[in-house]
Design brief:
The chain has 126 residues and is α+β, with helices and mostly antiparallel strands. It is built from three helices and six strands.
């Protein structure tokens, strides 16, 4: 079980791939050694390798050690803030964080709220 706190950001479905990209980039700016994993368990070396146009779920771990810890132990009090879970559904993007007040999670949530209400989400480089 993952647990955590869900933060849902409603938005039109056509904006969801770019919202997922923006969320992942916001996390990667804070966790430079992050590891990405799809909902089916595929691990990606870089965000460019993730098929965001069809991705419905993405786990971003602080680093490889964090991924390994989650795979062995699941959520624990020691690792709960080392992974952010992103879920795309028909009406928005949901972020699941261990603690929304933890600095990385709080910063990502603030950034996405600004992007959502500011209109334009950053576009993925071609």
């Amino acid at each position: 079980m993952i647990g955590g706190v869900d933060r849902h950001l409603p938005m039109p479905s056509q904006r969801l791939p770019e919202a997922l990209d923006a969320a992942a980039r916001a996390i990667l700016r804070r966790w430079r050694r992050a590891v990405l994993q799809s909902g089916d368990g595929t691990v990606f070396a870089t965000l460019a390798d993730v098929p965001l146009s069809v991705a419905a779920e993405l786990f971003i771990y602080r680093d490889r050690v964090s991924l390994d810890d989650w795979e062995v132990h699941g959520a624990t009090s020691e690792n709960v803030t080392t992974m952010i879970h992103l879920l795309v559904n028909g009406d928005g993007l949901t972020l699941v964080v261990g603690d929304p007040d933890e600095p990385v999670a709080a910063g990502v949530l603030r950034e996405l709220e600004r992007l959502r209400f500011g209109g334009e989400l950053p576009r993925r480089a071609a």
